[in-house]
Write the structure tokens for this entry.
Amino acid sequence: MTVSNTEPVPAVTPELRRYVEHDILPLYDAFDAAHRRDHAEAVMARSMALWRHYPALRADMVYLVAAYHDVGLDEGREHHHEVSARRLLADTKLRRWFTPEELALMAEAVEDHRASADRRPRSLYGCIVAEADRLIDPDTVIRRTVQYGLSHYPGLSREQHYARMCEHLGRKYAAGGYLQQCLPESPNAAPLARLRALIADEGRLRAAFDALYDAETAR
């Protein structure tokens, strides 16, 4: 599901939607394979699906937070959430649709979306984009991890990429990892259980890595 071409966006101002599609989404085209436009559109679609559980929230704000959540990746992953928040606040065109208070709340939500944060997002807007950004499908998680490793650590060997992937999955997704679900309506619970079972099964995990690694390096 995408939000830019194939389906209408419920309750989102058409002019805002056009601005995002023409000026914000193209920024993702230069990012690594795991964070290009299709990722942004997927996060936006999932955010709008979660918004249906919280209709008191402003749909335009949910939509924009999702659109802006990763635009700071060109300055590095470590602080991309902070860079993205600053860029949202600096975007003067957004003032035609949002008040200063709304812009500040959305910037806060963008900053809070990062899964490695050591605290819960400060608002429901942050919770929604944090959950929407977590597409916990085992194949997708492994593929994105492999893609990120190949893009950012091209000098690693196959075995080093596998070790890096295992370390990342264990630290983030395994039982006791830092990832925590933010909303009870999130569809991530069952996929997370499947992913944890895969992480615990070394044979299946290695086979999944090998298949995806071969596919990505053959491109």
